[in-house]
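@channel sequence for tomorrow's demo:
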Amino acid sequence: MTQSPPRILSISSDIAVFDSRNRVLESAGFQIVPCYRGVGAIEKFTIESIDAVVLGDSVPTSLRLSLLKAFRSTKPNIPIMVVYPVGEVTEDVLLADAANASLDGPAELIRTLSALVRKRSQVKAVAKAASNAG
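structure tokens (generated this afternoon):
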């Protein structure tokens, strides 16, 4: 049985960065659920099967923080990664499961996101085994 690729809700407000980041993630094997400027993000997060979220650095800090809090209250077990402007460590960065500076590069983005998704998969497998045993 083949496993479907991890589904990533990708949110950004800069179309060029948004497109390039999504292509990089797709080339690494992720399936992207795009959300430009955060429009419909909460609805997509709630309705769709999402394995992780990437909140981009071009999204205003206040919007990143409000989205992060809304996601946490809806599905607290979905990992959230924040890409933040270099030198701007704000509350959303501290509340995220992982964070990368915008200049960290594609390899670090993929490495960080892969670790988040892998950790979530392991937690899901343990929970499934526990429910099957009990």
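heads up for whoever presents: The chain has a mean pLDDT of 90.
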